[in-house]
Amino acid sequence: MVFQNRCLIVGLTVGMCFSFMGQAVAKQVVAGQAVVAQKPEAKQYLGGGTTVFATGRNSFSLPAANMPMLKTLDFSVGNSFFRSPWVIAPATTDVRDGLGPLFNTNGCQNCHIRDGGGHAPSSHDDNAVSLLVRISVAIEGVSWPEPNYGGQLQDFGVPGVEPEGKVHIEYQDVVEQFADGTTVTLRKPTLSITELAYGELHPDTRLSARLATPMIGLGLLEAIPEAKLMALADPQDLDNNGISGRPNTVLDVVSKKMVMGRFGWKAGQPSVRQQNTAAFAGDLGITSSLFPDENCTLAQKNCANAPTGGKPELTQEVLDAVTFYAQNLGVPARRQVNDAKTNAGEVLFESIGCAQCHTPTWTTGDAEAMPWLSNQVIYPYTDLLLHDMGNGLDDQHPESDAKGAEWRTPPLWGIGLSSVVSSEVNYLHDGRARTITEAILWHGGEAYDSQNAFKALSSEDRKALLAFIKSL
Amino acid sequence: MYFKPQLKMILVALACVTFNSQLIAAPSKASSIVETKVVQHYTTLAHTIFEDALITAKALDATLAAFIESPSQASLEKAQLAWKAARIPYLQSEVFRFGNPNVDDWEGQVNAWPLDEGLIDYVAQDYAHEEGNTGATANIVAAKSIKVGNKTIDTTSITPKFLAEINELGGSEANVATGYHAIEFLLWGQDLNGTQAGAGERPYTDFITGDQCTGGHCERRIQYLKAASSLLINDLQDMVAQWAPSTDNYRAKFEGLPKKEALTRILYGMGSLSLGELAGERMKVALDANSPEDEQDCFSDNTHHSHYFNAKGVQNLYDGQYQRANGQLMQGLGIAALVEPADPALHKSMQAALQKTEQALNAIVTLAEKDEPMKFDQLIAPNNTKGEAIVQEGIMALVNQAQSIEQVAKAVGIDNLNPDTSEHHF
């Protein structure tokens, strides 16, 4: 308004004044604000150039905003195989058959709901479709597949092959209290398997439930230079800050070398391609060049004798397309960037130590054959390292170098839109947390001090911190 | 107090005038006016095409009412023809979906597929669906209530509002309860012929009340059909309003975008529909997988028309031309108006690419519409080498067309044809 008055005073038309000031400022004047328009902050672009500005239910499903249009063919073909159901072999649809013999679900999208995450079953008779259970027998700290059931419980089977069992989760209330007296009731899950079809479980069996995780920005995480991540690792806590992140070291099944793990709740997989094929094998029973064997144990003879959908079942072309798709889902932009409350929350996020593991920003290196993912300044809020999260989250289920209590810092980008993308959202590896507050309250071990600092915050500060996290 | 700023402002104003006169003298002015006209004609076309989709959906609704009033094979076939007619403008509107987030968000309730049809009505015993999706076998037509997770949903009354609420029930995209394909399933039923000849063969008696009712619960099936049709009309009305001439709707905002950004959206939509959606998801995936489950209009076997009119939608925007449902021809400035003066050779090759696509997809239509038809689901059968070659030709034409669209984008000053990366999402 100030500008407008001055223009009128000197006898110029408003239009001329506007044309000088340029569109951005003119908009501000129209909106009745005298402030000069601000340049959008880099921090709004959580996924660098891949950032998409949709905020609706499809906001996790869009291609990277800077992906060349001519790549939409690979992206769409990958999307289709990610979304549509796989069928039992033999079938006329040769490329899409090979489901099972044992499996958890028949399509990726069933768990990665609209490319987002999964949720814990809402009741006992709910199929645990967006959550799966890992099984292991720990011998001297090393985890082995359970002899009769293998490394993962499959609760579906093709006709003639008995499903291994059903997941059963019981919750127990745990009450936590903030310094201001407010209480929060957490739910502590106890897992068991019912209707076991292939004999008893080994007496030392450990079960660990795992939720499907969101698909956004995976190609960017893959492109963070390993040396930079390693530089942040501090396994002996030499800087004495109570945080001792370390990388998981896992087998690259193609090169047969031990390399850094990046993907999965315990960073058990080194690349998007290996993560995808591991999920195809474990969750859908689809074999691939990376995992050529069906997941049948010696006790599961019908499983071993079931027809296959080809050797391997996943063609190289489809694997390439699905991998490309998984690497190229854009990251939604941050909302409320210039909001006083979220800014205050961001300061608290740093000051109470969240950012020590949820590392705000990285610059990607060279992404092979995908220059649009290279050299991007991104804000994933993760260090991709393993941290001891304390007894409360210890699942007693080691995975390569990761111990039971160790978990990879999950990225936080997109977290505020998860509830728009899917009607049911849960947090942490087994979905025990129904809210972000509950998730923070489960943080122990290296994150214990931060959790305590969170509990000491005033209600207003807690709201600001949550507003910041939800703006991501 | 005011003197200083006033003086500054006068100087600024002088500078401003000079700057403006320079702009007028600049050679780009003519093309900037054309750009404005192209953008305006794009929104006019969007409005007209959605309006035609609405008009034909209302015509469909009238034939559905007549069919329900006196069900017979003849009145069922009339309704089926009206459904096919309603698809023609709608499919030409899809090119607007890929450049405009408002259309993309809206589309899920209007044109979602593939669908787990067991959510809606009875299905054959060997029906394959998404495992763990309780909605996939809910059969709303037969059930007074359905259970999803720990929620029991009362389905006593099948209204448009109810259908909108249960679309994508339990978060599963396969739980399509609404839109063109839900209506298609109710009119045709499952296509149980796989990659063999034949579409869905639902008997008209599925809509007869009383003793002659087949398939059970005819009264509720009728309710479902009416509700799905009403909802489709409501949704189309909403979209028409977003593109109508107005000062406060999507159209107004679109026309207010910087011209380069508007053109990026237009061309990205044309390229993305050509390549990713049509060549990729709708043709290549179905062909590679030999899978009629990946066929868009799988109940009616009308997929050839879907492909043809999708491509027509792209061509409309290049030429600035659209033939309305009533036959009237609309003509204005399309993208061609920007390309032809700047690069006549490119204009020719773009036109040739569009024409090649038109021919290739028309060949598929001709096969599908001849006396002993060969439909798209037969072309994609395993070992149908002739069919594969025909579909492949369509795919290659679309790939080539997308490459030309990218060159066209460069010619109009867009170096990176990717989806909009600015904050102008509304």
Which outline of chain B best applies?
globular
In the CATH hierarchy, the third-tier topology of chain B is known as: A middle domain of Talin 1
First CA to last CA of chain A: what distance? 33 Å
The top level CATH class name of chain B:
Mainly Alpha
**How many beta strands in the DSSP annotation of chain B?**
4
Topology (elements, then pairings):
The complex is a heterodimer of chains A (472) and B (426).
Chain A: H1 2-9, H2 14-30, H3 72-83, E1 102-103, E2 131-139, E3 142-144, E4 152-153, E5 156-157, E6 166-177, E7 183-194, E8 205-211, H4 218-222, H5 226-232, E9 248-252, E10 257-261, H6 272-284, H7 301-305, H8 316-327, H9 340-351, E11 362-363, E12 377-378, E13 386-388, E14 406-408, H10 418-421, H11 436-441, H12 448-456, H13 459-470
Antiparallel strand pairs in A: 1-5, 2-3, 2-4, 2-8, 6-7, 9-10, 11-12, 13-14
Chain B: H1 3-25, H2 29-69, H3 73-97, H4 101-107, E1 145-148, E2 151-154, H5 160-166, H6 180-188, H7 218-243, H8 250-255, H9 259-288, H10 303-319, E3 321-323, E4 329-331, H11 336-342, H12 344-369, H13 376-379, H14 385-411
Antiparallel strand pairs in B: 1-2, 3-4
Helix pairs in contact in B: 2-3, 2-7, 2-9, 3-6, 3-9, 3-10, 5-7, 6-7, 9-10, 9-14, 10-12, 11-12, 12-14
Structure report:
The complex is a heterodimer of chains A (472) and B (426). With 472 residues, chain A is an alpha+beta fold. Helices cover 26% and strands 15% of the residues of chain A. In chain A, strands 2, 3, 4 and 8 form a four-stranded antiparallel beta sheet that branches. Chain A has a two-stranded antiparallel sheet with strand order 1-5. In chain A, strands 6-7 form a two-stranded antiparallel sheet. Chain A contains 13 helices and 14 strands. Chain A starts with a helix and ends with a helix. Chain A has helices at 2-9, 14-30, 72-83, 218-222, 226-232, 272-284, 301-305, 316-327, 340-351, 418-421, 436-441, 448-456, 459-470, and strands at residues 102-103, 131-139, 142-144, 152-153, 156-157, 166-177, 183-194, 205-211, 248-252, 257-261, 362-363, 377-378, 386-388, 406-408. Mean pLDDT of chain A is 88; it is low at 1-40. Chain B has 426 residues and is mainly α. Chain B has 14 helices and four strands. In chain B, the strands form two sheets. A two-stranded antiparallel ribbon of chain B has the order 1-2. Chain B has a two-stranded antiparallel ribbon with strand order 3-4. Chain B has a single domain (21-411), classed as A middle domain of Talin 1 (Up-down Bundle). In chain B, a hairpin with a 5-residue loop joins strand 3 (321-323) and strand 4. The chains are: A alpha+beta (472), B mainly alpha (426). Chains A and B meet through helix 1, helix 2 and helix 3 of A and helix 1, helix 4, helix 9 and helix 14 of B.
